[in-house]
From TrEMBL:
It comes from Oryzomicrobium terrae. It is a multi-pass membrane protein. It is found in: Cell membrane. Residues 29-486 form the Major facilitator superfamily (MFS) profile domain. This is EmrB/QacA family drug resistance transporter. Belongs to the major facilitator superfamily. EmrB family.
Length: 493
């Protein structure tokens, strides 16, 4: 026996998995992540159709049942923050499988809930899981794929993520109409279970490749999580209460003040504490700084438009729900189909230019919405709205893969997890604010214009114009995301 012969690699080591699966390994890993991500997105988007049934079964009003939605969003947003530390401490594999297990437990518990309080608790579990999974998708692409394949991988990953919201309302409506609200929790399991199985067999054990592991040098930053979590929750609560309280009310001003103070304290904390939750040093990277601003605007426009367009069509133009859905259906398909194309373009175009191009198209779409809203051609109204919606979604498809890769690619390897958590969190906060600010602006502006359908019509048109101008500014900002260098990274967990 030759004692000088090196020992065979562990069957679950990264080297053994790559040898076993060959060049297909990274793509199979991408499928596992995609299935898990689709499950988490379904948990977020399918719940709203069950709201009337929950109100009826538990005898609740709109204010009470909204706790299930608010609790999910808050849990998801806050859970994005410690994901980087969890990955450093336990490894990508364990965090991914753990998040899927939590998502599955929340889904089963939600379906069996005997009281609405249990429903809220299970939605919090689902939100925590979704919040951990979202930053991991971008991080996995950066670590598992070489530079030349990252754009394509991000596009394919995005295809499933954006297709889920298009399918969820239809599937959820069918389930609720025929079986009640409980199956909408269980519909997540067909994604969770395969993702758990694939993740178990495909994701390497970190401590096999690095016997000492790669634990963080510092303990968990509870103080930082408390400060940043308080700021985010204050912003979310303030945004959700804008409709009831208005901009100048005491609750709104108090919420903004709390958010501002805690953010300032966290900024000071992150500069002084070496193991801070989000280290201040990552903001020295210009693409990340610019990408964070663009991500906030992206969320603001995406979620805000998702709210404004259906409401505009049904309350002002008097479309029924089916007609409004048909107008928006081509845009959803365009978004899903463009994601792989946009991913491939990311491998050929500079990420800052592709991001800016996508933001510019989104701005153009809202100038088109503005023109259609003020137009006097009812025969072309639905067609104009459809075309504008398609243009907006093409813009969003171009933006997402380029923004995710361009804002993180030049970060040091040990900071990419923090960067991914930060950009995803900022995008989610922007989306929540977009929904609330859009609703409050339209209501307030229509009252200022005297009320009635004509006033609402003009208020929506002005909202579309403001979003268009905002995205023009974001287009200019996105051009500053140009990276000096780029780096290719591989999986190490």
């Amino acid at each position: 026996m030759d004692s000088s012969r090196p020992p065979a690699p562990h069957p679950r080591s990264l080297a053994a998995l790559r040898a076993r699966h060959g060049d297909a390994y990274k793509w199979r890993l991408l499928i596992a992540m995609s299935v898990g991500m689709v499950a988490s997105v379904m948990s977020a988007t399918i719940f709203n159709v069950a709201t009337p049934h929950l109100m009826r079964d538990f005898g609740l009003g709109h204010d009470a049942v909204q706790w299930a939605v608010t609790a999910y969003m808050a849990a998801m947003t806050v859970a994005m923050l410690p994901t980087a530390w969890l990955i450093d401490r336990f490894g990508f594999r364990h965090v991914f499988l753990g998040a899927l297990a939590i998502l599955g437990i929340g889904s089963i518990g939600g379906a069996l809930s005997p009281a609405f309080g249990v429903v809220v608790a299970m939605r919090i579990l689902q939100g925590l899981a979704a919040g951990m999974l979202q930053p991991m998708s971008t991080l996995m692409v950066l670590r598992a794929f070489p530079l030349e394949d990252q754009g394509r991988a991000m596009g394919l990953l995005g295809f499933g993520i954006v297709l889920a919201p298009a399918v969820a309302p239809v599937l959820g409506g069918f389930l609720v109409d025929h079986f009640g609200w409980r199956p909408i929790f269980l519909i997540v399991l067909p994604g969770c279970i395969p993702a758990l199985i694939m993740g178990h067999f495909l994701m390497p054990l970190r401590d096999v490749d690095t016997p000492s592991g790669l634990p963080p040098r510092h303990g968990f930053d509870w103080w930082g999580l408390g400060l940043l979590g308080t700021a985010i929750l204050a912003l979310l609560q303030t945004a959700s209460g804008l409709h009831a309280h208005g901009f100048a009310s005491l609750p709104t001003l108090a919420g903004v003040a709390i958010a501002a103070v805690t953010l300032a304290l966290f900024a000071r904390h992150s500069r002084r504490v070496p193991g801070a939750l989000i280290q201040a040093s990552i903001f020295r990277d210009r693409p990340l700084r610019v990408g964070t601003v663009v991500a906030f605007t992206y969320g603001l426009g995406l979620f805000g438009s998702t709210y404004l367009l259906p409401v505009f069509m049904q309350t002002v133009l008097h479309f029924n729900a089916t007609s409004a859905g048909l107008v928006l259906l081509p845009s959803g398909l365009a978004l899903a189909l463009m994601m792989p194309v946009a991913g491939n373009l990311t491998n050929k175009l500079a990420t800052h230019r592709q991001t800016a191009s996508g933001m510019a198209l989104f701005a153009l779409a809202f100038f088109m919405f503005f023109a259609v809203a003020y137009g006097e051609h009812p025969a072309w109204l639905a067609a104009g709205l459809t075309v504008a919606a398609v243009v907006s979604r093409i813009g969003l498809a171009l933006t997402l893969p380029a923004l995710n890769i361009g804002s993180l690619r030049t970060l040091p390897k040990d900071k990419t997890a923090q960067g991914s958590s930060l950009t995803n969190c900022v995008r989610q906060v922007g989306g929540t604010l977009g929904i609330s600010l859009g609703a409050v602006f339209v209501e307030t502006r229509s009252q200022m214009l005297g009320g009635g359908n004509g006033a609402e019509h003009e208020a929506f048109a002005e909202a579309f114009l403001i979003i268009g101008v905002l995205f023009v500014l974001a287009t200019v900002i996105a051009l500053g995301m140009k990276a000096k260098t780029a780096q290719s990274e591989t999986v190490s967990e």
